[in-house]
Protein backbone atom coordinates (compact mmCIF):
# COMPACT_ATOMS: atom_id res chain seq x y z
CA UNK A 1 0.00 0.00 0.00
CA UNK A 2 1.31 3.48 -0.81
CA UNK A 3 2.07 5.71 2.14
CA UNK A 4 -0.64 8.17 1.11
CA UNK A 5 -3.26 5.36 1.11
CA UNK A 6 -2.27 4.35 4.65
CA UNK A 7 -3.15 7.91 5.76
CA UNK A 8 -6.76 8.08 4.57
CA UNK A 9 -7.28 11.86 4.71
CA UNK A 10 -4.30 12.57 2.42
CA UNK A 11 -3.93 13.07 -1.30
CA UNK A 12 -1.05 11.92 -3.48
CA UNK A 13 1.67 13.07 -4.04
CA UNK A 14 2.07 13.44 -0.32
CA UNK A 15 3.07 16.83 1.11
CA UNK A 16 4.13 17.09 4.75
CA UNK A 17 5.00 20.04 6.95
CA UNK A 18 8.07 19.53 9.15
CA UNK A 19 7.31 19.32 12.90
CA UNK A 20 9.10 22.57 13.72
CA UNK A 21 9.20 22.94 17.49
CA UNK A 22 7.41 26.14 18.55
CA UNK A 23 6.62 27.05 14.92
CA UNK A 24 4.36 24.21 13.65
CA UNK A 25 1.49 24.53 16.08
CA UNK A 26 -2.26 23.81 15.84
CA UNK A 27 -3.13 26.24 13.06
CA UNK A 28 -0.44 25.03 10.65
CA UNK A 29 -0.93 21.30 11.20
CA UNK A 30 -4.73 21.66 10.94
CA UNK A 31 -4.51 23.63 7.69
CA UNK A 32 -2.02 21.18 6.14
CA UNK A 33 -4.08 18.09 7.05
CA UNK A 34 -7.29 19.77 5.88
CA UNK A 35 -5.60 20.38 2.51
CA UNK A 36 -4.85 16.66 2.18
CA UNK A 37 -1.28 16.83 3.43
CA UNK A 38 0.23 15.55 6.64
CA UNK A 39 0.21 18.20 9.35
CA UNK A 40 2.97 17.57 11.88
CA UNK A 41 3.00 19.39 15.21
CA UNK A 42 6.43 20.44 16.49
CA UNK A 43 7.28 20.06 20.13
CA UNK A 44 10.18 21.53 22.04
CA UNK A 45 9.49 19.78 25.34
CA UNK A 46 6.80 22.22 26.45
CA UNK A 47 4.13 19.68 27.46
CA UNK A 48 1.43 22.17 28.57
CA UNK A 49 1.77 23.88 25.15
CA UNK A 50 1.56 20.50 23.39
CA UNK A 51 -1.59 19.66 25.38
CA UNK A 52 -3.22 22.95 24.29
CA UNK A 53 -2.17 22.38 20.67
CA UNK A 54 -3.58 18.85 20.59
CA UNK A 55 -6.86 20.00 22.18
CA UNK A 56 -7.18 22.72 19.52
CA UNK A 57 -6.45 20.29 16.66
CA UNK A 58 -8.89 17.76 18.13
CA UNK A 59 -11.67 20.35 17.96
CA UNK A 60 -10.85 21.32 14.38
CA UNK A 61 -10.37 17.93 12.69
CA UNK A 62 -12.51 14.78 12.48
CA UNK A 63 -10.86 11.53 13.45
CA UNK A 64 -10.07 8.76 10.96
CA UNK A 65 -12.17 5.56 10.91
CA UNK A 66 -9.45 4.03 13.10
CA UNK A 67 -10.12 6.76 15.67
CA UNK A 68 -6.86 8.59 15.08
CA UNK A 69 -6.28 12.33 14.94
CA UNK A 70 -5.18 13.05 11.33
CA UNK A 71 -1.94 14.76 12.30
CA UNK A 72 1.45 13.76 13.68
CA UNK A 73 3.38 14.86 16.74
CA UNK A 74 7.14 15.44 16.50
CA UNK A 75 9.28 14.63 19.51
CA UNK A 76 12.91 15.66 20.03
CA UNK A 77 14.19 12.71 22.03
CA UNK A 78 17.08 14.43 23.78
CA UNK A 79 14.71 17.08 25.15
CA UNK A 80 11.41 15.35 25.84
CA UNK A 81 10.64 12.90 28.65
CA UNK A 82 8.56 10.05 27.27
CA UNK A 83 6.79 9.62 30.62
CA UNK A 84 5.45 13.15 30.21
CA UNK A 85 4.59 12.89 26.51
CA UNK A 86 2.99 9.44 26.56
CA UNK A 87 -0.19 10.35 28.48
CA UNK A 88 -0.87 13.12 25.95
CA UNK A 89 -0.24 10.81 23.01
CA UNK A 90 -2.56 8.20 24.54
CA UNK A 91 -5.26 10.79 25.13
CA UNK A 92 -5.23 12.30 21.63
CA UNK A 93 -3.97 9.34 19.53
CA UNK A 94 -2.23 11.16 16.64
CA UNK A 95 -1.93 9.10 13.44
CA UNK A 96 1.85 9.62 13.46
CA UNK A 97 4.53 9.95 16.12
CA UNK A 98 7.71 11.44 14.64
CA UNK A 99 11.05 11.12 16.42
CA UNK A 100 14.31 12.98 15.90
CA UNK A 101 17.56 13.87 17.66
CA UNK A 102 18.08 10.99 20.07
CA UNK A 103 21.32 11.17 22.06
CA UNK A 104 21.98 7.52 21.13
CA UNK A 105 20.51 5.68 18.13
CA UNK A 106 19.50 2.86 20.49
CA UNK A 107 16.98 5.19 22.20
CA UNK A 108 14.70 5.13 19.15
CA UNK A 109 13.96 1.43 19.65
CA UNK A 110 13.03 1.91 23.34
CA UNK A 111 10.73 4.81 22.53
CA UNK A 112 9.20 3.05 19.52
CA UNK A 113 8.40 -0.03 21.62
CA UNK A 114 6.67 2.01 24.33
CA UNK A 115 4.78 4.19 21.85
CA UNK A 116 3.64 1.14 19.85
CA UNK A 117 2.37 -0.55 23.00
CA UNK A 118 0.33 2.55 23.86
CA UNK A 119 -0.77 3.52 20.32
CA UNK A 120 -0.79 0.33 18.22
CA UNK A 121 -2.60 1.96 15.26
CA UNK A 122 -0.31 4.99 14.95
CA UNK A 123 2.65 5.08 12.59
CA UNK A 124 6.19 5.65 13.85
CA UNK A 125 8.27 8.01 11.73
CA UNK A 126 11.97 8.64 12.43
CA UNK A 127 14.13 11.32 10.80
CA UNK A 128 17.72 10.27 10.00
CA UNK A 129 20.67 11.93 8.25
CA UNK A 130 23.05 9.11 7.36
CA UNK A 131 23.06 5.62 5.87
CA UNK A 132 24.58 4.29 9.10
CA UNK A 133 21.75 5.75 11.22
CA UNK A 134 19.11 4.56 8.76
CA UNK A 135 20.38 0.99 8.91
CA UNK A 136 20.63 0.88 12.69
CA UNK A 137 17.22 2.49 13.17
CA UNK A 138 15.65 0.15 10.58
CA UNK A 139 17.03 -2.92 12.34
CA UNK A 140 16.20 -1.86 15.90
CA UNK A 141 13.25 0.57 15.97
CA UNK A 142 11.64 -0.73 12.75
CA UNK A 143 9.80 2.51 11.94
CA UNK A 144 6.92 2.59 9.45
CA UNK A 145 8.53 5.57 7.75
CA UNK A 146 12.00 7.06 7.71
CA UNK A 147 12.50 10.69 6.80
CA UNK A 148 15.79 11.04 4.95
CA UNK A 149 17.04 14.49 5.89
CA UNK A 150 19.62 15.99 3.53
CA UNK A 151 22.15 18.63 4.54
CA UNK A 152 20.33 21.46 2.73
CA UNK A 153 17.73 21.31 5.51
CA UNK A 154 16.85 24.31 7.63
CA UNK A 155 17.06 23.95 11.39
CA UNK A 156 18.86 21.03 13.00
CA UNK A 157 20.37 18.06 11.27
CA UNK A 158 23.53 15.99 11.08
CA UNK A 159 26.68 18.10 11.15
CA UNK A 160 28.31 15.64 8.74
CA UNK A 161 25.71 15.23 6.05
CA UNK A 162 24.88 14.77 2.40
CA UNK A 163 22.10 16.10 0.22
CA UNK A 164 19.08 13.82 -0.14
CA UNK A 165 19.96 13.38 -3.82
CA UNK A 166 22.73 10.95 -2.82
CA UNK A 167 21.47 9.97 0.64
CA UNK A 168 18.00 8.76 -0.32
CA UNK A 169 18.97 6.27 -3.05
CA UNK A 170 21.84 4.88 -0.95
CA UNK A 171 19.53 4.40 2.05
CA UNK A 172 16.89 2.88 -0.22
CA UNK A 173 19.39 0.35 -1.65
CA UNK A 174 20.81 -0.49 1.78
CA UNK A 175 17.33 -1.10 3.21
CA UNK A 176 16.40 -3.36 0.29
CA UNK A 177 19.69 -5.28 0.55
CA UNK A 178 18.99 -5.98 4.21
CA UNK A 179 15.37 -7.02 3.78
CA UNK A 180 13.81 -3.86 5.30
CA UNK A 181 11.29 -3.58 2.49
CA UNK A 182 8.34 -2.46 4.61
CA UNK A 183 9.83 0.93 5.53
CA UNK A 184 8.63 3.86 3.40
CA UNK A 185 10.96 6.78 2.79
CA UNK A 186 10.08 10.46 2.73
CA UNK A 187 12.60 13.18 1.85
CA UNK A 188 13.56 16.46 3.53
CA UNK A 189 16.15 19.15 3.07
CA UNK A 190 15.97 21.95 0.52
CA UNK A 191 12.57 20.96 -0.91
CA UNK A 192 10.54 24.13 -1.40
CA UNK A 193 8.52 23.78 -4.59
CA UNK A 194 7.08 21.32 -7.08
CA UNK A 195 10.38 20.91 -8.89
CA UNK A 196 12.43 19.81 -5.90
CA UNK A 197 9.48 17.74 -4.70
CA UNK A 198 9.35 15.99 -8.12
CA UNK A 199 13.07 15.24 -7.81
CA UNK A 200 12.48 13.59 -4.43
CA UNK A 201 9.57 11.51 -5.78
CA UNK A 202 11.73 10.46 -8.75
CA UNK A 203 14.36 9.22 -6.27
CA UNK A 204 11.76 7.00 -4.62
CA UNK A 205 10.41 9.18 -1.81
CA UNK A 206 6.75 8.56 -0.96
CA UNK A 207 6.32 12.01 0.50
CA UNK A 208 8.16 15.30 0.88
CA UNK A 209 8.73 17.12 4.16
CA UNK A 210 9.13 20.89 3.97
CA UNK A 211 10.16 23.14 6.84
CA UNK A 212 11.52 26.32 5.29
CA UNK A 213 8.66 26.64 2.79
CA UNK A 214 6.08 26.31 5.54
CA UNK A 215 7.83 28.99 7.60
CA UNK A 216 6.28 31.33 5.03
CA UNK A 217 2.75 30.06 5.74
CA UNK A 218 0.29 32.46 7.37
CA UNK A 219 -0.61 29.83 9.96
CA UNK A 220 2.96 29.25 11.16
CA UNK A 221 3.90 30.68 14.53
CA UNK A 222 6.86 32.75 13.34
CA UNK A 223 7.88 36.34 14.12
CA UNK A 224 6.85 38.63 11.22
CA UNK A 225 10.38 40.05 10.86
CA UNK A 226 11.83 36.51 10.65
CA UNK A 227 9.23 35.79 7.95
CA UNK A 228 10.23 39.00 6.16
CA UNK A 229 13.91 37.96 6.26
CA UNK A 230 12.96 34.56 4.86
CA UNK A 231 11.11 36.03 1.90
CA UNK A 232 13.91 38.57 1.29
CA UNK A 233 16.76 36.01 1.36
CA UNK A 234 18.25 34.68 -1.86
CA UNK A 235 21.14 32.42 -2.87
CA UNK A 236 20.63 30.05 0.07
CA UNK A 237 24.05 28.41 -0.19
CA UNK A 238 25.57 31.82 0.57
CA UNK A 239 22.95 33.40 2.79
CA UNK A 240 22.59 30.41 5.16
CA UNK A 241 25.19 28.27 6.96
CA UNK A 242 25.29 25.15 9.11
CA UNK A 243 27.04 25.86 12.42
CA UNK A 244 27.02 24.95 16.08
CA UNK A 245 27.38 28.66 16.86
CA UNK A 246 23.62 29.07 16.57
CA UNK A 247 23.08 26.66 19.48
CA UNK A 248 25.64 28.53 21.60
CA UNK A 249 23.98 31.93 21.60
CA UNK A 250 21.61 31.51 24.55
CA UNK A 251 24.12 29.56 26.62
CA UNK A 252 26.05 26.32 26.26
CA UNK A 253 24.84 24.10 23.40
CA UNK A 254 22.57 21.30 24.68
CA UNK A 255 22.17 19.44 21.37
CA UNK A 256 23.72 15.97 20.94
CA UNK A 257 27.22 16.27 19.40
CA UNK A 258 26.30 14.87 15.98
CA UNK A 259 23.96 17.82 15.27
CA UNK A 260 24.31 21.39 14.16
CA UNK A 261 21.78 23.74 12.56
CA UNK A 262 21.31 25.85 9.43
CA UNK A 263 20.29 29.50 9.84
CA UNK A 264 20.19 32.63 7.71
CA UNK A 265 23.45 34.45 8.45
CA UNK A 266 23.11 37.46 10.74
CA UNK A 267 25.14 39.76 12.98
CA UNK A 268 26.00 37.08 15.56
CA UNK A 269 27.62 35.10 12.76
CA UNK A 270 29.47 38.19 11.45
CA UNK A 271 30.80 38.81 14.99
CA UNK A 272 31.93 35.18 15.25
CA UNK A 273 33.69 35.40 11.86
CA UNK A 274 35.49 38.55 12.88
CA UNK A 275 36.83 36.88 16.02
CA UNK A 276 34.49 38.19 18.75
CA UNK A 277 34.49 35.72 21.67
CA UNK A 278 31.41 33.65 22.53
CA UNK A 279 30.80 35.41 25.89
CA UNK A 280 30.60 38.80 24.18
CA UNK A 281 28.44 37.39 21.35
CA UNK A 282 26.05 35.95 23.97
CA UNK A 283 25.92 39.28 25.82
CA UNK A 284 25.06 41.18 22.61
CA UNK A 285 22.51 38.51 21.65
CA UNK A 286 20.80 38.72 25.05
CA UNK A 287 20.52 42.51 24.75
CA UNK A 288 19.12 42.25 21.21
CA UNK A 289 16.34 39.91 22.36
CA UNK A 290 14.97 42.77 24.48
CA UNK A 291 14.21 44.83 21.34
CA UNK A 292 10.67 44.94 19.93
CA UNK A 293 11.83 42.91 16.93
CA UNK A 294 13.23 40.21 19.32
CA UNK A 295 16.63 40.35 17.67
CA UNK A 296 15.31 39.60 14.19
CA UNK A 297 16.09 41.89 11.30
CA UNK A 298 15.15 41.42 7.67
CA UNK A 299 18.43 42.97 6.49
CA UNK A 300 20.34 40.41 8.61
CA UNK A 301 21.73 42.96 11.04
CA UNK A 302 19.79 41.26 13.85
CA UNK A 303 21.37 38.80 16.27
CA UNK A 304 18.71 36.12 16.65
CA UNK A 305 18.84 32.78 14.83
CA UNK A 306 16.58 32.44 11.79
CA UNK A 307 16.57 28.73 10.93
CA UNK A 308 16.18 28.18 7.19
CA UNK A 309 17.37 25.77 4.50
CA UNK A 310 19.26 26.41 1.27
CA UNK A 311 15.94 26.56 -0.62
CA UNK A 312 15.14 29.87 1.08
CA UNK A 313 15.87 31.85 -2.10
CA UNK A 314 12.86 30.20 -3.75
CA UNK A 315 10.45 31.22 -0.97
CA UNK A 316 8.98 34.41 -2.33
CA UNK A 317 5.80 35.18 -0.44
CA UNK A 318 3.75 34.65 2.68
CA UNK A 319 0.65 32.65 1.81
CA UNK A 320 -1.92 30.27 3.33
CA UNK A 321 -0.60 26.77 4.11
CA UNK A 322 -3.35 25.13 2.02
CA UNK A 323 -2.15 27.06 -1.03
CA UNK A 324 1.41 25.77 -0.46
CA UNK A 325 0.19 22.17 -0.15
CA UNK A 326 -1.97 22.39 -3.28
CA UNK A 327 0.64 24.23 -5.33
CA UNK A 328 3.53 21.88 -4.52
CA UNK A 329 1.32 18.79 -4.91
CA UNK A 330 -0.03 19.78 -8.33
CA UNK A 331 3.24 21.21 -9.67
CA UNK A 332 5.19 18.10 -8.61
CA UNK A 333 2.68 15.81 -10.35
CA UNK A 334 2.65 17.96 -13.50
CA UNK A 335 6.44 18.20 -13.53
CA UNK A 336 6.86 14.42 -13.30
CA UNK A 337 4.46 13.91 -16.25
CA UNK A 338 6.17 16.62 -18.29
CA UNK A 339 9.63 15.16 -17.68
CA UNK A 340 8.45 11.65 -18.59
CA UNK A 341 6.88 12.93 -21.81
CA UNK A 342 10.17 14.53 -22.87
CA UNK A 343 12.36 11.45 -22.42
C1 LIG B 1 12.47 26.49 11.97
C2 LIG B 1 12.72 25.00 11.93
C3 LIG B 1 12.48 24.26 13.08
C4 LIG B 1 12.66 22.87 13.06
N1 LIG B 1 12.36 22.16 14.18
C5 LIG B 1 12.39 20.81 14.13
C6 LIG B 1 11.91 20.04 15.23
O1 LIG B 1 11.51 20.58 16.26
N2 LIG B 1 11.92 18.68 15.12
C7 LIG B 1 12.35 18.06 13.97
O2 LIG B 1 12.30 16.84 13.92
N3 LIG B 1 12.85 18.77 12.92
C8 LIG B 1 12.85 20.12 12.97
N4 LIG B 1 13.30 20.84 11.88
C9 LIG B 1 13.90 20.14 10.71
C10 LIG B 1 12.80 19.60 9.81
O3 LIG B 1 12.29 18.40 10.37
C11 LIG B 1 13.24 19.28 8.36
O4 LIG B 1 14.21 18.29 8.33
C12 LIG B 1 13.75 20.50 7.59
O5 LIG B 1 12.96 21.62 7.79
C13 LIG B 1 13.79 20.17 6.11
O6 LIG B 1 14.51 21.10 5.39
P1 LIG B 1 13.88 22.44 4.75
O7 LIG B 1 13.80 23.40 5.90
O8 LIG B 1 14.89 22.83 3.73
O9 LIG B 1 12.54 22.11 4.21
C14 LIG B 1 13.14 22.24 11.88
C15 LIG B 1 13.37 22.99 10.74
C16 LIG B 1 13.17 24.37 10.74
C17 LIG B 1 13.41 25.17 9.48
UniProtKB/TrEMBL annotation:
Keywords for the protein's UniProt record, in alphabetical order: Flavoprotein, FMN, Oxidoreductase
CDD domains in alphabetical order: NPD_like (cd04730)
Keyword Nucleotide-binding part of the UniProt annotation: no
SUPFAM superfamilies associated with the record: Inosine monophosphate dehydrogenase (IMPDH)
GO MF annotation list: nitronate monooxygenase activity
Pfam families in the record: NMO
Keyword Glycosyltransferase: no
Gene3D superfamilies, per the entry: Aldolase class I (3.20.20.70)
Protein known as: Uncharacterized protein
UniProt organism field: Neohortaea acidophila
